[in-house]
Design goal:
315 residues; alpha/beta; TIM Barrel; eight-stranded parallel β-sheet; three-stranded antiparallel β-sheet; 11 strands; binds ligand TUI
């Protein structure tokens, strides 16, 4: 059994979080992950308060275990969904794509464990000062919105800089990644790409198939010119975006409008040409659909074996 302060803090069996994937991470997936002993997370993405409240109520029907909500701070509805999680007394809130400091007092007063996703030592230190319970150090190998640093250099630097537990994310999809993350100073992991192909994940089957077929160099980063780099699978949408991005005849506004609705087109419609199939670099390792509980158990058992056996490398 892997020992982690994250399990004691949150009352979960395995220190495995499911990433808050926009348009993908709903009540059904979150409940399956939580029932499997990890921490399931509902993505509030760009949805409004009513949608999130419904999803929270649905998840409460499907599981008695703790689950979390991820708040995407660039969402136009961030203020209203921030109030919903406090009213619903969600045990864990993770945040992404920004600095959550202005909401942290409200959430802490509601008894919420606030666990921001950070991509730098500076933000990790800042959220610790504001009372974060832990941080998720997410490297640029991740799918979706990413920062500059990769997981390998980011995790130990953040682990040295803060006293709260660190959860590693970005490029982790099995027990080897989990064991390595613990060696870097992490006390838990978050996985997105691997849970995207969980049986209980309701993303469009075309999306799952593209992830299952993806190889090591099948992702690309777009959006750097607009200041929000995003990693996703190479396809007609991302190739066209990548080409136009550095063509000065396209204004930032035109580029911005190119991306509107593309996540929905991928996750809901399965539109292989016009959709934005956000996905991490580890997709090449993700080759089969499995129940969420099996993903968690398999990953943790593999990590345990590797961590136990690690002594064999030392004389
Ligand atoms: O948030 C994510 N992944 C996402 S959000 C998303 S929706 C979206 N669509 C288009 C453009 C932008 C977002 C798709 N995937 N992951 C968590 C994450 N947060 N990764 C990196 C960060 C991050 C980066 C910089 C967090 C904070 C930060 O610092 C901001 C600051 O103000 O200091």
């Amino acid at each position: 059994m892997i020992q982690s302060p994250i399990c004691d803090m949150l009352g979960i069996q395995y220190p495995v979080f499911q990433g808050g994937m926009a348009w993908i991470a709903d009540a059904k997936l979150a409940a399956a992950v939580s029932n499997g002993g990890g921490l399931g997370i509902i993505s509030a993405m760009n949805a409004n308060a009513d949608w999130l409240r419904e999803q929270i109520h649905e998840a409460k029907k499907l599981t008695e275990k703790p689950f979390g909500v991820n708040i995407m701070l660039m969402s136009p509805f961030a203020d209203e969904v921030a109030k919903v999680v406090a009213e619903e007394k969600i045990p864990v809130v993770t945040t992404g794509a920004g600095n959550p400091s202005k909401y942290m007092e409200l959430w802490k007063e509601a008894g919420i464990h606030v666990i921001p996703v950070v991509a730098s030592v500076g933000l990790a230190r800042m959220v610790e000062r504001h009372g974060a319970a832990a941080v998720i150090a997410e490297g640029g190998e991740s799918g979706g919105h990413i920062g500059e640093a990769a997981t390998m250099p980011l995790v130990p630097q953040i682990a040295d800089a803060v006293s709260i537990p660190v959860i590693a994310a970005g490029g982790i999809a099995d027990g080897r990644g989990m064991a390595a993350a613990f060696m870097l100073g992490a006390r838990g992991v978050q996985m997105g790409t691997r849970f995207l192909v969980a049986e209980e994940c309701g993303v469009h089957p075309n999306y799952k198939n593209k992830v299952l077929k993806a190889k090591d160099i099948d992702t690309v980063v777009t959006g750097r010119r607009l200041g929000h780099a995003c990693r996703g699978l190479k396809n007609p949408f991302s190739r066209e975006y990548a080409k136009k991005e550095w063509d000065v005849s396209f204004s930032p506004e035109e580029l911005e409008s190119l991306g509107v609705g593309a996540l929905r087109k991928a996750a809901v419609d399965g539109n292989e040409k016009e959709g934005s199939f956000l996905c991490g670099q580890i997709a090449g390792l993700v080759t089969k659909e499995q129940p969420a509980a099996e993903i968690i158990r398999e990953t943790c058992e593999e990590a345990e074996t590797l961590l136990k056996e690690a002594a064999k490398w030392v004389k």
